[in-house]
C-alpha cells in the first residue's frame, strides 16, 4: 500500500535527561550524563564510569500502579515504560481504559538483557528454598518481551505487540520494522523503541574485555570521546527511547504534530565473514546497508546532509567514517554534517539506537545539529576524509532535510534508517 509514515510522538529516559524537555536541553547545550559509580570501584571494575538515568522515586508513581511497583526490580523495564508512555502522551493518543483494545495500534519495543537484577534476586530466593517468595511479577520482569507486554497492557494496544533484539542495532532496527508494518497497511500506529538495563551485571562483561576507558575515572564527562585521537573505548550506558510512528493519513486526521517523516531503511548482516566478526563490522555489509537504506527511501546519496553515526569512541570510528565516505561517494567539504551522541550519554547498548533516533528526530524538528563532545583532538585518519567543519563541537543552526542514522551491533548486524523533514 506504500503509506507514508511520520513521527508524531517522542519519549526518552536517558543518562543526561529524563523526559523530552530535559533531554532536548541537554543535547542542545552539550550536557553529559556520564558519572562515576562508586559501586563499580567497589567491585574492582577498571572502568568506573557509566551513563545511567537518574530516576526520582516520586516519578515512578506517574507511570506504575502501587501493585506494579511492588517487587519491581528491573531498571530497563522502568526506563522503557517511562519513555514509551511519554511518547504516547506526546503524540496526543489516548489510553484505552477498558473494553475493546485499539486494533490499529501496536508496539515493537526491543531490549538486550532485561531484568538482570530481578533475575539475580530470584536466583537467591530459589537457592534459599523460597520459591513462593518470588512473586507474580518475576517472570514478566526477566522475559525479553516483558517490556512490550507491560506497555501493551498499559496502553491497550491490540495490533502486533512484540520485542526485537539485535544487540546495539536493536532500537534502529525496531524503527524500520515499525515503519514497514505501517507502510504495508497492517497498522496505523506503532510505538517503537528499545531499553537496556543498567548496573554492574550488564557492564561487567565489557569491562572484562578491556574495551572500556580506564583513565577517566576521576574525570567521567571526558571519558567517552567519539572520533577523537585520544578515544580509549566506549563508556557503557543505559536507558530507553521511544517513537510513535503513524501513517500520514492517521496523523492528518487527528491533526497531530509531525516531527519528521520516516523515508525508509535497511537491515543486514556481514555474516561474520571477511573482516567481520562477533565484535567487528564487515565494511562491505555496512556500506551495502547504508546504500540500500538510501535506495529504499527514494532519495539520492547526495541528498543526505546529516549523519548520526554509531561511532562508539573506539579504534573503529575512523573505519566507520571511511564506510560512510564510500557509501555516499563524498569527502572533505562535501561530506554531510556528522555527529555521535556517545559523548553525551555513553553507549546505551540495546537502547542506543532508539535514544539516538529520538535525538536525531529532534535535530530535524529544531533545525539544529547537536555538537560532538570530547573530540577537540579529532582523529587525523578521520580528518583525511572529512573537513573539520563538518564535525561540529557545539550545536549549530542547520536544518537537516535528509538525515541518515545507523547502528551496528555485536554479531556483525547493521541497521540504517533515513529520516526526512516532513513536507506536504
UniProtKB/TrEMBL annotation:
Its EC number is 2.3.1.41. InterPro entries: Beta-ketoacyl_synthase, Ketoacyl_synth_C, Ketoacyl_synth_N, PKS_Beta-ketoAc_synthase_dom, Thiolase-like. It is an enzyme of class 2 (transferase). One of its GO terms (molecular function) is 3-oxoacyl-[acyl-carrier-protein] synthase activity. It catalyses: (3Z)-decenoyl-[ACP] + malonyl-[ACP] + H(+) = 3-oxo-(5Z)-dodecenoyl-[ACP] + holo-[ACP] + CO2; a fatty acyl-[ACP] + malonyl-[ACP] + H(+) = a 3-oxoacyl-[ACP] + holo-[ACP] + CO2. Keywords: Acyltransferase, Cytoplasm, Transferase. The keyword Iron-sulfur does not apply. It is found in: Cytoplasm. The keyword Phosphoprotein does not apply. One of its GO terms (cellular component) is cytosol. Residues 2-421 form the Ketosynthase family 3 (KS3) domain. It holds the Pfam family Ketoacyl-synt_C. It comes from the Bacteria. GO terms for biological process: fatty acid biosynthetic process. Belongs to the thiolase-like superfamily. Beta-ketoacyl-ACP synthases family. Homodimer. This is 3-oxoacyl-[acyl-carrier-protein] synthase 1.
Amino acid at each position: 500500500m506504500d503509506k507514508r509514515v511520520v513521527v508524531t510522538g517522542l519519549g526518552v529516559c536517558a543518562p543526561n535527561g529524563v523526559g523530552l524537555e530535559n533531554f532536548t536541553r541537554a543535547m542542545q547545550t552539550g550536557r553529559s550524563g556520564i558519572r562515576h559509580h562508586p559501586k563499580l570501584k567497589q567491585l574492582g571494575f577498571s572502568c568506573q564510569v557509566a551513563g545511567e538515568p537518574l530516576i526520582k522515586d516520586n516519578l515512578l508513581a506517574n507511570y506504575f500502579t502501587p501493585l506494579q511497583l511492588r517487587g519491581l526490580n528491573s531498571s530497563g523495564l522502568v526506563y522503557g515504560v517511562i519513555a514509551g508512555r511519554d511518547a504516547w502522551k506526546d503524540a496526543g493518543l489516548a489510553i484505552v481504559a477498558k473494553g475493546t483494545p485499539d486494533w490499529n495500534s501496536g508496539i515493537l519495543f526491543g531490549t538486550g538483557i532485561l531484568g538482570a537484577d530481578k533475575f539475580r534476586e530470584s536466583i537467591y530466593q530459589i537457592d534459599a528454598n523460597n520459591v513462593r517468595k518470588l512473586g507474580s511479577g518475576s517472570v514478566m520482569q526477566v522475559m525479553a518481551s516483558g517490556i512490550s507486554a507491560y506497555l501493551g497492557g498499559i496502553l491497550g494496544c491490540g495490533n502486533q505487540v512484540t520485542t526485537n533484539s539485535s544487540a546495539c542495532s536493536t532500537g534502529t532496527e525496531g524503527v524500520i520494522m515499525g515503519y514497514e508494518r505501517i507502510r504495508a497497511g497492517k497498522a496505523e500506529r506503532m510505538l517503537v523503541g528499545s531499553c537496556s538495563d543498567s548496573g554492574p551485571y550488564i557492564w561487567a562483561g565489557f569491562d572484562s574485555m578491556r574495551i572500556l576507558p580506564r583513565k577517566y575515572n576521576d574525570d567521567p564527562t571526558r571519558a567517552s570521546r567519539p572520533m577523537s585521537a585520544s578515544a580509549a573505548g566506549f563508556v557503557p550506558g543505559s536507558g530507553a527511547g521511544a517513537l510513535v510512528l503513524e501513517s500520514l493519513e492517521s496523523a492528518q486526521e487527528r491533526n497531530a504534530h509531525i516531527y519528521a517523516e520516516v523515508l525508509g531503511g535497511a537491515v543486514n548482516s556481514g555474516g561474520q565473514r571477511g573482516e567481520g566478526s562477533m565484535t567487528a563490522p564487515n565494511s562491505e555489509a555496512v556500506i551495502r546497508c547504508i546504500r540500500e537504506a538510501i535506495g529504499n527511501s527514494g532519495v539520492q546519496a547526495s541528498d543526505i546532509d546529516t549523519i548520526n553515526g554509531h561511532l562508539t569512541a573506539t579504534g573503529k570510528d575512523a573505519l566507520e567514517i571511511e564506510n560512510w565516505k564510500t557509501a555516499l561517494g563524498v569527502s572533505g567539504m562535501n561530506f554531510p554534517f556528522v555527529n555521535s551522541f556517545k559523548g553525551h550519554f555513553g553507549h546505551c547498548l540495546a537502547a542506543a539506537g532508539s535514544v539516538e533516533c529520538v535525538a536525531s528526530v529532534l535535530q530535524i524538528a529544531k533545525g539544529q545539529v547537536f555538537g560532538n563532545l570530547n573530540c577537540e583532538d579529532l582523529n587525523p585518519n578521520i580528518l583525511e576524509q572529512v573537513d573539520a567543519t563538518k564535525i561540529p563541537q557545539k550545536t549549530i543552526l542547520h536544518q537537516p532535510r535528509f538525515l541518515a542514522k545507523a547502528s551496528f551491533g555485536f554479531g556483525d548486524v547493521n541497521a540504517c534508517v533515513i529520516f526526512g523533514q516532513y513536507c506536504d
